[in-house]
Fold these 2 entries.
Entry 1:
Amino acid sequence: MSRLSDDFLWGGAVAANQVEGGWNKGGKGVSVSDVMTAAAHGVEREVTDGVLPDRYYPNHEASDFYSNYKEDIKLFHEMGFRCFRTSIAWTRVFPNGDEEEPNEEGLMFYDEMFDTCLEYGIQPVITISHFEMPYHLVTKYGGWRNRKLIDFYLNYCQAVFTRYKDKVKYWMTFNEINMIVRKPWKPGGIQIAEGENKLQTMYQAAHYMLVASARAVKLGKEINPAFVIGGMFLHPTSYAATASPDDVLASVKKLQEAYMFLDVHVRGKYANSYYHFLERNELIIETQPEDALILQEGTIDFIGFSYYSSSVAIANPATQNKSEGNEISGYKNSLLPASEWGWQIDPVGLRITLNWLYDKYQIPLFIVENGLGAVDTVEEDGRIRDDYRIEYFRRHVEEMKKAVLEDGVELLGYTPWGCIDLVSAGTGEMKKRYGFIYVDKDNDGKGTLQRYKKDSFYWYQECIRSNGETI
Ligand code: BG6
């Protein structure tokens, strides 16, 4: 094979909570992201006790995709997108999460948005839950601590699978499901209390989410056998800090923790190492007799994953500096440059990741997030010269192509993160921009919300037009 296939899914990715805004429009309920304040590089976002009147919540208006989606999708079309990854806001469909009937106005919004995509020949690629669940499910039930969440999630899946069965083919059950055992608020609505056994809570929630994901896959296939349903996984690409076998073992262990999720997603059962991990840490996970069969029957069709950077693992952490990165980070690699937010830039790491994942699981992969968060400057004439972003993408696309064309990895597509500027999930900042399209808004929420095409817009347009040949 010398070229990517003609149906390779070039596109872009966002999440409802970070781009839509309209947080209380159309009957939408409050979500876990609506109670997170803005922070800054190196500062954690605060989770407030409900929405407080004197605080600024950046996700409330975000990039106002809710009002601008028609124009924005038109711009995606201009770039040549063949697909658009976004999520459905659970709170638009079930504002509290425990209602029996969905909110019609919320469903209509996605009907119209998906129709707009389809009119332009853009396939929606939908994450069912992306860092956004009803806040009510947290206050009343404790979030994914509670097994009841499985039924609420399934009720939500039933509503969206049925409603969009002829509009959406590609689905993913949970965004970055493995984040639940590291930072459980955004994916699971869980805040760890003082003195609580953190591992116990997080691994219990992980089991419930894996059961929910498997049931969703089975349900989706019953509703439309042509659905292609994947999982979504944060790949914490990690190398040994040195050739010392102890460092190599540390990197093996780090990946093992993460792969536990894919073992279940892809093979329908936990690996032995998981049970040993539970035993070592004295964790007792509540399961039901039917869980084993549910996991077996709900395996995924493809692995969607995010890849931004890599880090190193080390046996003796005292000797190395921590690196920053996408929630699950590690230690610094002196051979790699880093972004302004400290995320180490490693294009070859993308090729390595694709090879690791494909060798291990042998099912199609989908790069559903990749990109560079950077500060952009609008010049007097309105131009944004983001050559640093172009360089990042050029080198990653190059390595992605090598993985497909030279190494034989089966890859469905590539959707760079934050194709239009949006609120950072980690910091709540606007100035950490990923987009090909600039949105005029600052960290304090000021700005016209006007859209501008960055230089990278034209670069990506040409990349897609040439099917990845001209980069
Ligand atoms: C991934 C998430 O973790 O990384 C996105 O799926 C997130 O929601 C992205 O925005 C980039 O992280 P950040 O913190 O720069 O927004």
Entry 2:
Amino acid sequence: MVQLNIEKSLSFIGKDSLAAYKEQVKAAQEALENGTGLGNDFLGWLHLPSSITEEHLSDLEATAKVLRENCEAVVVAGIGGSYLGARAVIEALSDSFTWLREQKNGPVILFAGHNIGEDYLYELTDYLKDKKFGIINISKSGTTTETALAFRLLREQCERQRGKEEARKVIVAVTDAKKGAARVTADKEGYKTFIIPDNVGGRFSVLTPVGLLPIAVAGYDIRALVAGAAAMEKKCGADVAFEENPAAIYAATRNELYKQGKKIEILVNFNPKLHYVSEWWKQLYGESEGKDGKGIFPAAVDFSTDLHSMGQWIQEGERTIYETVISVDKVNHSLTVPFDAENLDGLNFLAGKHVDEVNKMAELGTQLAHVDGGVPNMRVVIPALTEEAIGSLMYFFERACGISGYLLGVNPFNQPGVEAYKKNMFALLNKPGYEEASKAIQARIK
Ligand code: PA5
């Protein structure tokens, strides 16, 4: 389970300023529990881990089995909240070179619908041209352009290659219960469907079929993921004292740091498999808090890689940042540094040590250097990259995000700002219904 250590932030903000958040956090927790805060129609995620039924998990596993048994590749089509959770979990648990290995145990998982790259889509469809592939089409609204466009291409290809009847067995839709183009198509074609609950927003949806189905298809244990999240649901509950509640402490600490001028939070990992957990976290906090002219900017780096690019800025740039490090206690494999009689690289002082020991010293050395450089630091420690640990990590961040948004005084569950680019794009593309906007935007760019 997640352990939070804020010692190296307390030295910046002081114990008393943190303790002062106790009542505000209590109010935020109550607002979440009682559904009395802003965005209260989107609180379905709050007790999701403890309320997922056996029947639902079995249904997901049965569908995952069909895809695993009938596909060499499965393309997960989705964007934002309908993409990042699944990718974060799958990448955290997968072999780093999975796509280069012969697929013996189930399909390779690919992602689409999260960009409008012609080359990306061409190369994807080209790779799939001699493969038996399936599709999981994920869209809550069912009308998101990026996803719909990718699905149109992939569905046509899947039907052409496998025939309509067989394609129907390996195309699954995860969407709204009633509305949207994805629902209409799925019902018309007779695809297996899973519902995205109305009261769960995209960025909080990893424990709905949005995340669980692709994760199960990738071969991971969704029961353990949910169990990890459920354990954290208990540990972060409204009935847990402020001092012992990691979500409460994280939310309060980051708000106090923000108040004291730390406008940017950098999420740090020392394990490349966590890259997409950071991407997921960026969306969670960015969309939840960046509004009304407020909000900590969520940034992320992969160390030690980015110590050789962003390290200088973090050590000596403008002092408006703090770091939150996700630290993985134990690695899954064992590899030691070999002894070399010639020692031309001078690395014999490391001979016999585990690579992770070197990494851990890089982590500690970096933490101390950055704290010395005026960068407050928090550590979020998980025992290992397992389903259970990732589940607990994700629920921890979700719960803390709800509390943190309320402390900041925003509605953490809406995202009105994401519509602006869509309106312009549709106007520029002359989408029916956008005639006036098209004229206005053409005049602007003349
Ligand atoms: O958090 C959000 O609401 C967004 O990131 C959406 O998840 C994203 O835009 C995809 O939307 P949809 O699932 O409707 O296709």
